[in-house]
Protein backbone atom coordinates (compact mmCIF):
# COMPACT_ATOMS: atom_id res chain seq x y z
CA UNK A 1 0.00 0.00 0.00
CA UNK A 2 1.23 3.51 -0.82
CA UNK A 3 0.54 6.73 0.98
CA UNK A 4 -1.60 7.94 -1.92
CA UNK A 5 -4.15 5.13 -1.65
CA UNK A 6 -4.14 4.75 2.15
CA UNK A 7 -7.59 5.86 3.27
CA UNK A 8 -7.20 7.93 6.42
CA UNK A 9 -9.86 9.46 8.66
CA UNK A 10 -9.56 11.64 11.79
CA UNK A 11 -11.93 11.58 14.76
CA UNK A 12 -11.57 14.60 17.05
CA UNK A 13 -13.31 14.39 20.42
CA UNK A 14 -14.24 16.90 23.11
CA UNK A 15 -17.05 19.21 24.15
CA UNK A 16 -14.52 22.05 24.37
CA UNK A 17 -13.88 21.80 20.62
CA UNK A 18 -17.57 21.66 19.79
CA UNK A 19 -18.30 24.73 21.95
CA UNK A 20 -15.43 26.74 20.52
CA UNK A 21 -13.67 27.04 23.88
CA UNK A 22 -10.72 25.21 22.29
CA UNK A 23 -9.62 25.81 18.72
CA UNK A 24 -8.76 22.60 16.85
CA UNK A 25 -5.15 22.93 15.72
CA UNK A 26 -4.38 19.23 16.14
CA UNK A 27 -6.06 18.02 12.96
CA UNK A 28 -4.02 20.52 10.94
CA UNK A 29 -0.82 19.31 12.59
CA UNK A 30 -1.69 15.66 11.95
CA UNK A 31 -2.54 16.39 8.30
CA UNK A 32 0.70 18.31 7.76
CA UNK A 33 2.80 15.54 9.25
CA UNK A 34 0.98 12.82 7.30
CA UNK A 35 1.68 14.73 4.10
CA UNK A 36 5.39 14.01 4.66
CA UNK A 37 4.55 10.40 3.77
CA UNK A 38 2.32 11.43 0.86
CA UNK A 39 -0.67 10.44 3.01
CA UNK A 40 -3.77 12.58 2.72
CA UNK A 41 -6.72 12.83 5.10
CA UNK A 42 -9.95 11.73 3.41
CA UNK A 43 -12.40 12.70 6.14
CA UNK A 44 -12.44 14.48 9.49
CA UNK A 45 -15.20 14.33 12.09
CA UNK A 46 -15.48 16.24 15.38
CA UNK A 47 -17.73 14.83 18.09
CA UNK A 48 -18.57 15.92 21.63
CA UNK A 49 -18.19 13.72 24.70
CA UNK A 50 -21.30 11.62 24.07
CA UNK A 51 -20.94 7.86 24.46
CA UNK A 52 -23.48 6.62 21.89
CA UNK A 53 -22.53 9.20 19.27
CA UNK A 54 -18.85 8.36 19.68
CA UNK A 55 -19.59 4.66 19.34
CA UNK A 56 -21.53 5.18 16.12
CA UNK A 57 -18.90 7.41 14.57
CA UNK A 58 -15.97 5.21 15.57
CA UNK A 59 -17.70 2.09 14.22
CA UNK A 60 -18.62 3.73 10.92
CA UNK A 61 -15.24 5.36 10.36
CA UNK A 62 -13.26 2.20 11.17
CA UNK A 63 -15.41 0.26 8.69
CA UNK A 64 -14.43 2.66 5.87
CA UNK A 65 -10.83 3.58 6.68
CA UNK A 66 -7.46 1.86 6.52
CA UNK A 67 -6.22 4.16 9.26
CA UNK A 68 -8.26 6.00 11.88
CA UNK A 69 -6.54 8.48 14.16
CA UNK A 70 -8.54 9.45 17.24
CA UNK A 71 -7.41 12.65 18.96
CA UNK A 72 -8.49 13.51 22.49
CA UNK A 73 -10.28 11.79 25.36
CA UNK A 74 -7.27 10.09 26.99
CA UNK A 75 -7.10 12.15 30.19
CA UNK A 76 -7.97 11.47 33.83
CA UNK A 77 -11.48 12.99 33.99
CA UNK A 78 -14.93 11.43 33.56
CA UNK A 79 -15.44 13.03 30.16
CA UNK A 80 -12.32 11.36 28.72
CA UNK A 81 -14.03 8.46 26.97
CA UNK A 82 -11.78 7.21 24.17
CA UNK A 83 -10.48 4.04 25.86
CA UNK A 84 -13.97 3.09 27.04
CA UNK A 85 -15.54 3.66 23.62
CA UNK A 86 -12.82 1.79 21.72
CA UNK A 87 -13.10 -1.20 24.06
CA UNK A 88 -16.88 -1.29 23.58
CA UNK A 89 -16.63 -1.13 19.78
CA UNK A 90 -13.87 -3.76 19.71
CA UNK A 91 -15.80 -6.03 22.10
CA UNK A 92 -12.94 -6.35 24.59
CA UNK A 93 -12.60 -5.63 28.29
CA UNK A 94 -10.96 -2.60 29.88
CA UNK A 95 -8.01 -3.57 32.03
CA UNK A 96 -5.09 -1.95 33.79
CA UNK A 97 -2.14 -1.92 31.42
CA UNK A 98 1.17 -2.47 33.26
CA UNK A 99 3.19 -0.41 30.75
CA UNK A 100 0.82 2.52 31.15
CA UNK A 101 1.02 2.23 34.94
CA UNK A 102 4.82 2.24 34.80
CA UNK A 103 4.70 5.34 32.61
CA UNK A 104 2.42 7.09 35.12
CA UNK A 105 4.67 6.24 38.07
CA UNK A 106 7.70 7.65 36.25
CA UNK A 107 5.74 10.75 35.19
CA UNK A 108 4.63 11.43 38.80
CA UNK A 109 8.08 10.71 40.24
CA UNK A 110 9.73 13.27 37.94
CA UNK A 111 7.30 15.90 39.24
CA UNK A 112 7.33 14.80 42.87
CA UNK A 113 3.60 14.00 42.67
CA UNK A 114 1.56 11.27 44.32
CA UNK A 115 -0.04 8.84 41.87
CA UNK A 116 -3.80 8.97 42.50
CA UNK A 117 -6.86 7.12 41.27
CA UNK A 118 -7.74 9.84 38.76
CA UNK A 119 -4.38 9.48 37.07
CA UNK A 120 -4.61 5.67 37.16
CA UNK A 121 -7.74 5.95 35.00
CA UNK A 122 -5.33 6.70 32.14
CA UNK A 123 -3.88 3.20 32.52
CA UNK A 124 -7.30 1.51 32.11
CA UNK A 125 -7.11 0.55 28.45
CA UNK A 126 -8.75 -1.91 26.03
CA UNK A 127 -7.25 -5.38 26.23
CA UNK A 128 -4.64 -6.04 23.56
CA UNK A 129 -3.62 -2.46 22.74
CA UNK A 130 -0.09 -1.53 21.73
CA UNK A 131 1.26 1.39 23.76
CA UNK A 132 2.57 4.54 22.06
CA UNK A 133 4.98 6.43 24.31
CA UNK A 134 4.13 9.97 25.38
CA UNK A 135 7.45 11.66 26.30
CA UNK A 136 5.74 14.71 27.82
CA UNK A 137 2.33 13.97 29.30
CA UNK A 138 0.75 11.46 31.67
CA UNK A 139 -1.54 9.72 29.16
CA UNK A 140 0.07 7.18 26.85
CA UNK A 141 -1.22 6.74 23.33
CA UNK A 142 -2.29 3.34 22.09
CA UNK A 143 -3.43 1.47 19.02
CA UNK A 144 -5.71 -1.43 18.21
CA UNK A 145 -6.88 -3.09 14.99
CA UNK A 146 -10.60 -3.09 14.24
CA UNK A 147 -11.28 -5.36 11.27
CA UNK A 148 -9.04 -4.01 8.50
CA UNK A 149 -8.55 -0.63 10.15
CA UNK A 150 -5.58 0.42 12.25
CA UNK A 151 -6.86 2.71 15.03
CA UNK A 152 -4.34 5.05 16.68
CA UNK A 153 -5.39 7.02 19.77
CA UNK A 154 -3.53 10.23 20.63
CA UNK A 155 -3.86 12.84 23.41
CA UNK A 156 -5.59 16.16 22.80
CA UNK A 157 -2.88 18.34 24.36
CA UNK A 158 -1.13 19.86 21.30
CA UNK A 159 2.39 19.68 22.69
CA UNK A 160 1.97 16.02 23.63
CA UNK A 161 0.56 15.15 20.22
CA UNK A 162 3.46 16.90 18.49
CA UNK A 163 5.98 15.00 20.62
CA UNK A 164 4.42 11.66 19.67
CA UNK A 165 4.00 12.14 15.94
CA UNK A 166 7.59 11.28 14.99
CA UNK A 167 7.29 7.73 16.32
CA UNK A 168 3.80 7.37 14.83
CA UNK A 169 5.05 8.44 11.40
CA UNK A 170 8.01 6.08 11.63
CA UNK A 171 5.58 3.26 12.29
CA UNK A 172 3.31 4.27 9.41
CA UNK A 173 6.26 4.51 7.02
CA UNK A 174 6.99 0.86 7.73
CA UNK A 175 3.43 0.01 6.68
CA UNK A 176 3.90 1.42 3.18
CA UNK A 177 5.01 -0.78 0.31
CA UNK A 178 7.94 1.36 -0.85
CA UNK A 179 10.02 4.28 0.41
CA UNK A 180 8.22 7.60 0.28
CA UNK A 181 9.64 10.18 -2.11
CA UNK A 182 7.17 12.93 -1.16
CA UNK A 183 9.06 16.08 -0.25
CA UNK A 184 7.87 19.55 0.79
CA UNK A 185 10.15 22.58 0.66
CA UNK A 186 8.69 25.31 2.86
CA UNK A 187 9.57 28.99 2.51
CA UNK A 188 8.64 31.36 5.33
CA UNK A 189 7.80 34.90 4.25
CA UNK A 190 6.65 38.16 5.82
CA UNK A 191 4.88 41.06 4.14
CA UNK A 192 3.28 39.10 1.30
CA UNK A 193 -0.38 38.11 1.07
CA UNK A 194 -1.55 34.95 -0.69
CA UNK A 195 -3.22 36.77 -3.58
CA UNK A 196 -0.22 39.05 -4.10
CA UNK A 197 2.24 36.16 -4.09
CA UNK A 198 0.10 34.07 -6.44
CA UNK A 199 -0.33 36.94 -8.90
CA UNK A 200 3.40 37.68 -8.90
CA UNK A 201 4.18 34.03 -9.60
CA UNK A 202 1.52 33.76 -12.31
CA UNK A 203 2.83 36.88 -14.05
CA UNK A 204 6.55 36.12 -13.78
CA UNK A 205 6.49 32.32 -14.04
CA UNK A 206 3.60 31.33 -16.34
CA UNK A 207 5.20 27.97 -17.20
CA UNK A 208 5.25 26.69 -13.62
CA UNK A 209 6.03 22.94 -13.84
CA UNK A 210 3.24 20.46 -13.07
CA UNK A 211 5.67 18.22 -11.17
CA UNK A 212 6.13 20.90 -8.48
CA UNK A 213 2.90 21.58 -6.60
CA UNK A 214 2.63 25.18 -5.38
CA UNK A 215 0.77 25.83 -2.13
CA UNK A 216 0.27 28.61 0.41
CA UNK A 217 -0.52 28.69 4.12
CA UNK A 218 -1.49 32.12 5.34
CA UNK A 219 -0.96 33.07 8.96
CA UNK A 220 -0.15 35.98 11.21
CA UNK A 221 2.47 37.26 10.94
CA UNK A 222 4.09 34.88 8.43
CA UNK A 223 2.93 33.22 5.22
CA UNK A 224 4.31 29.87 4.13
CA UNK A 225 4.91 28.96 0.48
CA UNK A 226 5.13 25.21 -0.17
CA UNK A 227 6.85 23.48 -3.08
CA UNK A 228 5.81 19.83 -3.08
CA UNK A 229 7.13 16.98 -5.21
CA UNK A 230 6.09 13.32 -5.25
CA UNK A 231 9.17 11.85 -6.89
CA UNK A 232 12.83 12.24 -5.98
CA UNK A 233 13.67 12.78 -9.64
CA UNK A 234 11.83 16.12 -9.44
CA UNK A 235 14.17 17.46 -6.75
CA UNK A 236 16.31 19.53 -9.18
CA UNK A 237 13.13 21.06 -10.60
CA UNK A 238 11.92 21.86 -7.09
CA UNK A 239 15.22 23.58 -6.34
CA UNK A 240 15.03 25.58 -9.56
CA UNK A 241 11.56 26.79 -8.56
CA UNK A 242 12.91 27.79 -5.18
CA UNK A 243 15.65 29.85 -6.87
CA UNK A 244 13.07 31.53 -9.10
CA UNK A 245 11.01 32.51 -6.05
CA UNK A 246 14.15 33.87 -4.43
CA UNK A 247 14.71 36.09 -7.45
CA UNK A 248 11.05 37.13 -7.48
CA UNK A 249 10.59 38.23 -3.87
CA UNK A 250 13.68 37.13 -1.98
CA UNK A 251 13.75 40.17 0.32
CA UNK A 252 10.46 38.91 1.82
CA UNK A 253 11.76 35.37 2.40
CA UNK A 254 12.74 34.83 6.04
CA UNK A 255 14.04 31.29 5.69
CA UNK A 256 13.12 27.68 5.05
CA UNK A 257 11.32 25.05 7.10
CA UNK A 258 9.71 26.43 10.22
CA UNK A 259 11.96 29.48 10.63
CA UNK A 260 10.39 32.26 12.67
CA UNK A 261 11.09 35.95 12.09
CA UNK A 262 12.46 36.45 15.61
CA UNK A 263 14.62 33.35 15.20
CA UNK A 264 16.16 34.72 12.00
CA UNK A 265 16.84 38.10 13.62
CA UNK A 266 18.61 36.47 16.56
CA UNK A 267 20.68 34.34 14.19
CA UNK A 268 21.82 37.41 12.26
CA UNK A 269 22.66 39.26 15.48
CA UNK A 270 24.75 36.32 16.73
CA UNK A 271 26.64 36.12 13.45
CA UNK A 272 27.66 39.75 13.95
CA UNK A 273 28.26 39.55 17.70
CA UNK A 274 25.61 42.25 18.11
CA UNK A 275 22.72 42.86 20.50
CA UNK A 276 19.22 44.27 20.16
CA UNK A 277 16.92 46.18 22.50
CA UNK A 278 13.27 47.16 22.14
CA UNK A 279 11.24 50.21 23.21
CA UNK A 280 7.56 49.36 22.94
CA UNK A 281 4.36 51.24 23.54
CA UNK A 282 1.40 49.96 21.48
CA UNK A 283 2.77 46.40 21.21
CA UNK A 284 3.03 46.08 24.99
CA UNK A 285 6.18 43.94 25.03
CA UNK A 286 5.18 41.60 22.20
CA UNK A 287 8.44 42.11 20.30
CA UNK A 288 10.40 41.15 23.41
CA UNK A 289 8.12 38.16 23.89
CA UNK A 290 8.68 36.96 20.31
CA UNK A 291 12.42 37.16 20.84
CA UNK A 292 12.50 35.46 24.25
CA UNK A 293 10.37 32.54 23.04
CA UNK A 294 13.46 31.44 21.12
CA UNK A 295 15.84 29.33 23.27
CA UNK A 296 19.21 31.01 23.77
CA UNK A 297 17.91 34.48 22.93
CA UNK A 298 19.75 36.01 25.91
CA UNK A 299 23.05 36.11 24.02
CA UNK A 300 21.65 38.70 21.59
CA UNK A 301 18.74 40.24 23.49
CA UNK A 302 19.53 41.66 26.93
CA UNK A 303 16.77 44.17 27.64
CA UNK A 304 13.45 45.50 26.43
CA UNK A 305 11.40 48.47 27.64
CA UNK A 306 7.60 48.69 27.73
CA UNK A 307 6.87 52.40 28.12
CA UNK A 308 3.13 52.69 27.68
CA UNK A 309 2.41 55.97 29.45
CA UNK A 310 3.93 59.26 28.35
CA UNK A 311 5.53 59.99 31.73
CA UNK A 312 7.27 56.58 31.62
CA UNK A 313 8.57 57.30 28.12
CA UNK A 314 10.13 60.42 29.62
CA UNK A 315 11.39 59.04 32.95
CA UNK A 316 12.65 55.66 31.69
CA UNK A 317 13.83 56.40 28.13
CA UNK A 318 14.49 60.11 28.31
CA UNK A 319 11.91 61.13 25.71
CA UNK A 320 11.58 64.92 25.84
CA UNK A 321 8.49 66.31 27.57
CA UNK A 322 8.30 69.01 24.91
CA UNK A 323 8.29 66.37 22.17
CA UNK A 324 5.47 64.48 23.84
CA UNK A 325 3.46 67.64 24.41
CA UNK A 326 3.95 69.15 20.96
CA UNK A 327 4.05 66.07 18.69
CA UNK A 328 2.26 63.44 20.76
CA UNK A 329 3.38 59.94 21.68
CA UNK A 330 2.60 58.65 18.18
CA UNK A 331 5.17 60.68 16.31
CA UNK A 332 8.49 60.37 14.55
CA UNK A 333 10.44 62.41 17.09
CA UNK A 334 9.15 60.29 19.99
CA UNK A 335 9.96 56.87 18.50
CA UNK A 336 13.39 58.13 17.47
CA UNK A 337 14.08 59.24 21.05
CA UNK A 338 12.67 55.96 22.39
CA UNK A 339 15.09 53.96 20.24
CA UNK A 340 18.09 56.09 21.19
CA UNK A 341 17.15 56.02 24.87
CA UNK A 342 16.76 52.24 24.87
CA UNK A 343 20.20 51.74 23.29
CA UNK A 344 21.84 54.19 25.67
CA UNK A 345 20.36 52.50 28.75
CA UNK A 346 20.88 48.89 27.60
CA UNK A 347 24.16 49.24 25.74
CA UNK A 348 22.65 47.39 22.77
CA UNK A 349 23.89 47.82 19.22
CA UNK A 350 20.46 48.00 17.60
CA UNK A 351 16.95 49.02 18.64
CA UNK A 352 13.33 48.74 17.56
CA UNK A 353 10.87 51.34 18.83
CA UNK A 354 7.12 51.46 18.19
CA UNK A 355 4.32 53.80 19.25
CA UNK A 356 0.85 53.67 17.76
CA UNK A 357 -2.92 53.59 18.16
CA UNK A 358 -4.06 49.99 18.50
CA UNK A 359 -7.75 50.82 18.94
CA UNK A 360 -10.59 50.30 18.94
CA UNK A 361 -10.72 53.86 20.33
CA UNK A 362 -8.23 56.70 20.56
CA UNK A 363 -7.98 57.64 16.91
CA UNK A 364 -8.31 61.11 15.41
CA UNK A 365 -8.78 62.35 11.83
CA UNK A 366 -5.05 63.12 11.72
CA UNK A 367 -4.02 59.87 13.40
CA UNK A 368 -6.72 57.23 12.84
CA UNK A 369 -6.82 53.87 14.60
CA UNK A 370 -4.06 51.69 13.17
CA UNK A 371 -1.54 54.51 12.85
CA UNK A 372 1.94 53.59 14.09
CA UNK A 373 5.42 55.09 13.98
CA UNK A 374 8.33 52.66 13.81
CA UNK A 375 12.00 53.41 14.42
CA UNK A 376 14.86 50.98 13.98
CA UNK A 377 18.62 50.95 13.53
CA UNK A 378 21.83 51.71 15.40
CA UNK A 379 22.85 54.90 17.24
CA UNK A 380 24.42 56.36 14.11
CA UNK A 381 21.55 55.59 11.75
CA UNK A 382 17.97 55.51 13.01
CA UNK A 383 15.31 55.06 10.35
CA UNK A 384 11.63 55.80 10.83
CA UNK A 385 8.37 55.14 9.03
CA UNK A 386 4.70 55.90 9.68
CA UNK A 387 2.25 53.16 8.69
CA UNK A 388 -1.45 52.57 9.08
CA UNK A 389 -2.57 49.01 9.82
CA UNK A 390 -6.32 49.34 10.58
CA UNK A 391 -7.10 45.84 11.86
CA UNK A 392 -8.40 44.52 15.20
CA UNK A 393 -6.19 45.20 18.20
CA UNK A 394 -4.39 41.87 18.69
CA UNK A 395 -3.68 41.45 14.97
CA UNK A 396 -2.42 45.04 14.83
CA UNK A 397 0.02 44.31 17.65
CA UNK A 398 1.18 41.07 16.01
CA UNK A 399 1.80 42.64 12.61
CA UNK A 400 3.51 45.75 13.99
CA UNK A 401 5.80 43.67 16.21
CA UNK A 402 6.70 41.55 13.19
CA UNK A 403 7.28 44.63 11.03
CA UNK A 404 9.76 45.95 13.58
CA UNK A 405 11.64 42.65 13.57
CA UNK A 406 11.52 42.54 9.79
CA UNK A 407 13.13 45.97 9.46
CA UNK A 408 15.99 44.93 11.75
CA UNK A 409 16.37 41.74 9.68
CA UNK A 410 16.61 43.84 6.52
CA UNK A 411 19.08 46.22 8.16
CA UNK A 412 21.34 43.36 9.27
CA UNK A 413 21.22 41.85 5.77
CA UNK A 414 21.90 45.19 4.10
CA UNK A 415 18.61 45.11 2.17
CA UNK A 416 17.89 48.64 0.97
CA UNK A 417 14.79 47.74 -1.04
CA UNK A 418 11.66 48.83 0.83
CA UNK A 419 9.17 46.05 1.65
CA UNK A 420 5.92 45.96 -0.28
CA UNK A 421 3.87 46.55 2.85
CA UNK A 422 5.39 50.03 3.22
CA UNK A 423 3.51 51.13 0.11
CA UNK A 424 0.40 49.16 1.01
CA UNK A 425 0.26 50.45 4.60
CA UNK A 426 1.55 53.99 4.10
CA UNK A 427 -0.20 56.43 6.42
CA UNK A 428 -2.36 58.96 4.58
Would you write up a description of this structure?
β6 (130-132) and β7 (141-146) form a beta hairpin. The chain folds into 3 domains: 8-173, Molybdenum Cofactor Biosythetic Enzyme, Chain A; 183-256, Alpha-Beta Plaits (2-Layer Sandwich), CATH 3.30.70.2860; 261-424, CinA-like (Maf protein). It starts with 7 loop residues before the first strand and ends with a helix. The protein has 16 helices and 17 strands. The strands form 4 sheets. A 6-stranded mixed β-sheet has the order 2-1-3-8-7-6, with helices on both faces. The chain has helices spanning 15-19, 26-35, 51-64, 82-90, 98-110, 117-120, 158-173, 194-204, 235-249, 261-272, 286-292, 310-317, 321-327, 332-346, 393-413, 420-424, and strands at 8-13, 41-47, 67-71, 94-96, 124-126, 130-132, 141-146, 149-154, 183-190, 213-218, 222-229, 253-256, 276-280, 301-306, 350-356, 371-378, 381-388. The mean pLDDT is 94. It is globular, with a radius of gyration of 26 Å. The longest helix is centred in the C-terminal third of the chain and has 21 residues, at 393-413. By secondary structure, it is of the alpha/beta class.
Short overview:
With 428 residues, the protein is an alpha/beta fold.
Based on the model shown, name its key terms.
Maf protein; five-stranded mixed sheet; six-stranded mixed sheet; 3 domains; globular; 428 residues; Molybdenum Cofactor Biosythetic Enzyme, Chain A; alpha/beta; 16 helices; Alpha-Beta Plaits
Amino acid sequence: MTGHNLKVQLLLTGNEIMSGDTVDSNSALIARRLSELAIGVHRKVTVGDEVELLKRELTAMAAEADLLIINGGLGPTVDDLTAQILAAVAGVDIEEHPQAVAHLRQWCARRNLQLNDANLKQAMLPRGVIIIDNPIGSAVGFELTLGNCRVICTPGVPGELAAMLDSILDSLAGQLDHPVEHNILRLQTFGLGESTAQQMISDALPDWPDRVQLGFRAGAPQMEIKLTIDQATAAPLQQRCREQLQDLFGDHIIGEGGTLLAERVLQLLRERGATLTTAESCTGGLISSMLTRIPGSSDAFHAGFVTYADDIKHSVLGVGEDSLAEQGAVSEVVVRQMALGAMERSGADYAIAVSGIAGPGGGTPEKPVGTVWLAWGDPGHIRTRCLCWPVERSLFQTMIAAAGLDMIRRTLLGIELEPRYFAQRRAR
